[in-house]
Specification:
Layout lengths: L3 E4 L5 E4 L2 E2 L5 H12 L4 E3 H8 L5 H19 L7 E3 L3 E4 L4 E3 H9 L3 H10 L13 H31 L3 H14 L4 H13 L3 H18 L6 H11 L14 H8 L1 H4 L24 E2 L5 E2 L6 H17 L5 E2 L2 H7 L6 H8 L1 E3 L2 E4 L6 E4 L2 E4 L5
Parallel strand pairs: 1-7, 8-10, 8-11, 9-12
Antiparallel strand pairs: 1-2, 2-3, 4-6, 5-6, 12-13, 13-14
Helix pairs in contact: 2-3, 4-5, 5-6, 6-7, 7-8, 8-9, 8-10, 9-10
């Protein structure tokens, strides 16, 4: 079965059976890209219109969405199994029929050295580089996603460079550092790895030239001098203090600290996963609190109410995700952690939630949230 390939790192390319797909409007490709970036590759119609056509009236935006779906299904609608699906509330991609480089990259980053090599090859540039809808809402979403992926790539390349240093693969270490510097041209840790990689190959003059270029860049952009770790490495290379590739190379943590700095080295530790804890019993997640919107309790005996409650849940997650004071747990994690009534505390411990919210929905009533013992009525109708 040929899969729809959605490649978003370094551009926006859609391929099927080895051929590049083209559409009448750019919003066709952008819709597929947005779906591929979301948990479970699924969005509500309201989420899509708000993201791609925020300046249009709701009725007009939904009409444009219907036209976009029609154009897409003319191109990929005959595939079996179906790639693109929709109902009155939702639009989604069949995950088994789609391959997205962003999803593959995210999985590879948390893996072993082989996974890091794969992630390194996949990250060919910024997310959807050169593409945008032009609207403020979409650009804000795209910027946030780019920052998130850039941070993942930085961690990946730091870990990979450290691994290649320890394995004495200094040429590969240099290549990794170059790509790391391209992500953030002012990241001195990347330049230190670059300089060390060159020096350890015996290319001392090239390493010193990288240092001079960095000094000029820091002066022109920030008006500052290099960090003490960078100057110390420069003097060690200048004075012949680094061993050459045919000598025994230290592999302990202090040596990595000297190259990239202790603060950067903290990122080389394995990335925490949901439910992970440290040896002291503390959460493996960052101090910034996590928020999960737990599943609705549908008090109606009508089955069609489940679609409405799912739509409200997804819209709440999307709205909360725009805040920067906390992390919002992805919808697929929420569903995975959900369980019968009374399991909230176990779910909270698993995802490190600092705020507890349970939403309820009943026929003819407005939903409300409980934060601790306080009920706050919401104005949004179910």
């Amino acid at each position: 079965m040929a899969k729809l390939e959605i490649n978003l790192l370094g551009g926006l390319e859609l391929r099927l059976g080895g051929k590049t797909l083209s559409f009448q409007t750019r919003h066709c490709a952008l819709l597929l890209a947005c779906l591929a970036m979301t948990p479970e590759m699924r969005m509500t119609r309201g989420q899509v219109t708000e993201l791609l056509w925020p300046d249009r009236a709701d009725k007009q935006a939904r009409g444009t969405l219907r036209q976009t779906l029609y154009r897409l299904k003319k191109v990929i609608g005959d595939l079996e199994p179906s790639v693109l699906n929709s109902d009155q509330c939702h639009i989604w991609l069949n995950a088994e029929a789609v391959q997205c480089d962003v999803a593959t990259f995210r999985q590879a980053v948390t893996g072993n050295d082989d996974g890091l090599d794969k992630a390194f090859a996949l990250y060919e540039g910024e997310l959807m580089e050169g593409h945008g809808a032009g609207g403020e809402t979409f650009e804000a979403w795209l910027s946030d996603e780019r920052v998130s992926l850039r941070k993942l790539a930085t961690i990946c390349f730091l870990r990979l460079a450290a691994s290649r240093y320890a394995d004495r693969r200094f040429g590969d270490m240099e290549t990794t550092a170059c790509k790391l510097a391209a992500i953030d041209p002012l990241d001195e840790a990347a330049y230190r790895l670059w300089m060390a990689g060159l020096a350890l190959q015996g290319r001392r003059n090239a390493a010193l030239a990288v240092y001079k270029d960095l000094c000029q860049l820091l002066q022109s952009e920030l008006g500052v001098e290099p960090e003490p770790e960078t100057e110390a490495l420069y003097m060690a290379i200048r004075d012949g203090g680094l061993p050459s590739a045919d000598e025994t190379t230290p592999r302990h943590a202090d040596e990595i600290d000297r190259l990239i700095g202790r603060r950067s080295r903290e990122q080389l530790e394995p990335m925490p996963t949901m439910g992970s804890t440290h040896s002291d019993g503390s959460s493996g997640l960052p101090e910034r609190p996590y928020v999960a919107v737990l599943p609705f309790d549908t008090l109606s005996d009508k089955s069609d109410r489940e679609h409405s409650s799912d739509g409200i849940t997804e819209e709440l997650i999307a709205a909360l995700s725009r805040g920067r004071a906390f992390y919002v747990i992805a919808r697929n994690t929420r569903i995975h952690r959900s369980g019968p009534r009374g399991s909230d505390q176990e779910s909270e411990r698993a995802v490190g939630c600092a705020i507890r919210s349970r939403w309820q929905c009943a026929p003819g009533r407005r939903p409300f949230a409980r934060h601790g013992a306080t009920d706050r009525r919401r104005t949004r109708s179910a």
